[in-house]
Hints:
Elements: H1 3-15, H2 20-32, H3 34-39, H4 42-45, H5 48-52, E1 57-66, E2 72-83, E3 89-95, H6 101-117, E4 123-129, H7 138-152, E5 161-165, H8 171-185, H9 208-222, E6 232-235, H10 240-251, E7 255-261, E8 264-267, H11 274-286, H12 292-297, E9 302-305, E10 316-318, H13 328-336, E11 341-343, H14 352-360, E12 364-366, H15 368-371, H16 374-388, H17 394-418, H18 430-448
Amino acid sequence: xxxxxxxxxxxxxxxxxxxxEFLQAVQEVVSTIAPVLEAKKKYEDNCILERITEPERxxxxxxxxxxxxxxIRVNRGYRIQFNSAIGPYKGGLRFHPSVNLGIxxxxxxxxxxxxxxxxxxxxxxxxxxxxDPKGKSDAEVMRFxxxxxxxxxxxxxxxxxxxxxxxxxxxxxxxxxxGQYKRLTGVFSGVLTGKGRNWGGSIMRPEATGYxxxxxxxxxxxxxxxxxxxxxxxxxxAGNVAQFxxxxxxxxxAKVVTMSDSNGFIYDKDGIDxxxxxxxxxxxxxxxxxxKEYAEHFKGxxxxxxxxxxxxxxxxxxxxATQNEINxxxxxxxxxxxxxxxxxxxxMPTNLEGISNFLDAKILFGPxxxxxxxxxxxxxxxxxxxxxxxxxxxxEVDTKLFNIMKNIHENAYSxxxxxxxxxxxxxxxxxxxxxxxxFVKVADAMIDQGLV
Length: 452
């Protein structure tokens, strides 16, 4: 790395001590865009790295609410409005006990480049609260969401900041948040995405991230004259992203043999077919049960307590649970067991050592900001439909999603080879390609708009 990138990284580390996830994300991006920074000095002259690693606005607020027993509870809410150079802030809300400033800054920083890659006019942002919706009644979740939006509403809007869902924020939570926004402002607008289909939501939004990561993997394999047909795949997670990744991978001819939750993973050597997946969806979405019940219900399936699925031999792996779920040792294990492709469905699910292992082994590795951009891309399509007061068909949205993922792949692929530093002409470093492609668009827009 140049003196410029080294200096900026040192400054970022000093200013953001105690935020390891954010520092990890910055280091990963800055280290891979070094070739374009060296080729185009205008970015250093305009202090783009210093500016792009600092959020435009950070909002932290108290969220008081009352539980069903009449006890007052207090949580902390956040919204990180990171960069609006190419459009209004766009990024999900996460409700989970692990939520803190550093995690949301990492997610918001990643969102800048992910949104840039979609080709849609969306800046980067993220938000949430350290509230856990698990085990809470619908009434408790509603009261929390209403209190959360009572503060957030003054900072968001269809042309300002458009939040969506993330971990812990599904259709139920989006509905309560939207209702309170409408109540406070008297305005029915596209202020949130992930809405119900009968009141402004887009068809295919729930499927989008899982479908998108499958399409991205399909495009990576196509560069090797290969396909997903007949591939044995590992999927982690059992939420929205994992469910629809399993569905689309199965439709494309792959056999998915694992899913997981925070307590462990299930392994089904016969594959998780459409009927079994429907059972899992009912388990997780309606009964809110644990994945171990799958092994109790389906003969031949195994459940592995307190473990992740990365020890199982496979052709392809799709981490779709949460950040840093694949470490260096687990990445090495996947490679040793024959894995030839990893596509990230979750946000930053592989740590830096794991990424290094995948790149050193020269396997096909689709980083999250490219591979899982289908969700936010379809949120952008929902914004477009809201602005036009239209509702597209499932076929129209899926076709647009497929083409967006194809374009993201082509963009990352072409930038990886334009600024290639690896001696292997056939190898594509999608991490570098995605970071450079996303960075250049945002950085140029920042320069065009002056020192703001």
